[in-house]
Design goal:
Vanadium-containing Chloroperoxidase, domain 2, two-stranded antiparallel sheet, single chain, 13 helices
Length: 405
Amino acid sequence: MVITCNEEAAEIFNIHTNPGHDTRRMAIIHIAMHDALNSIIQQYHRYAFQAILNPDASADAAVLEAAYRTIYWAIEDVIKYQDKLIAESLPGVEYSPGIKFDEIQCKRNILSWYTAQMGGIADGAAKSNGKIVGQQSANAIIVKRSNDKSDTVDILSKIPKDGTKDGEFRADYYSTPIAEKNKLIVNFDKVTNFVINSRPPFRQNPDYAKQSEWEKDLNEVKDLGTPDHVLGGLLNAKVEFWSNLKPHIVWNNFAKQIIQANTLDTWTTARVFALIHTAMADGAILLFEDIYKFMKWRPVTAIRLLLDPDWNYRKPIPRVPEYPTSFGIFGGAVGQLLENVFPGPISINLPTIPIINYTSIADALNDNKLATMYAGRNFRKTMEDSEKQGRLIGNYIYENEFLGV
């Protein structure tokens, strides 16, 4: 049932609002399922719901109820975000970050899915108890996160102003005209972390040790990150897969395949999903603190100013500074967690054309790193440092939350 609910959540929230809100929603959903299971038979420490155990409850009913309640809540959260985005946009300026969310249809779909899934569970006291546990677990995490300041975040902002010196970020590469409000999610770092409270130990240094290293990275993106550089079939499939603007879903689906290949029990499966989504959620909060602290320019700005004014990038570039990057932080965090849980070799095939096979998580992380350079979004050092930061975050979450009892 955990996999079934994860797939439903991943399908509904396969959207791109921003890394902060996207990961927060998925973390809440998966924490609720984890807490529900461990409120029946406790194998791992719970996060939000701490009531007396209910061993007579149905695990499937508890997980399904927890997932349904939090997914329904998350649908409403997306609508709140969408309404706030419209309210903050300038008059007469159309701005869409890829949200195409029909609230009524989504709620109908999730209710239909929930009814069908719950109908497959045998009626009786265990089912009724499971639904109660699931509802209580969902309510507990929703209430716990209700005052985390996520609703105070400015989606569009006039500050900080575009830089004017070499190395400073400027949003001069985006075609969508939103005048001065050209910075996204500037104050998401004010959101309360799920687990991590002390942030600086995870931070990396954006400065290059040598000018020659910077020039090498700059020319690498110039050569590889343009559509003029034609990609072969397998390489193109890797770039398409890993450069997706919804890395929280990409890494969720990657982790799901590894979990399924290793036939984990239900409790461990829920723990792994809670770990990776909580790590990405905390990683996003640290991300937004650092990108606006460092305010580093994108390769496209540097290349057009210093090398080729007509240069163009292969894939859309987020409207935020370049260092660090969610692609590297999420990859490092999830990769580290998966290596901790599955220390041996893996064997999975991604549903791409042609099929991409991985026998190690390290190989997937390397392709994730290269994909953003081929996309024209990030420098090599940024991806390497972001992965390091993500690994530190993932390891911290692993060692401090959802521990065995």
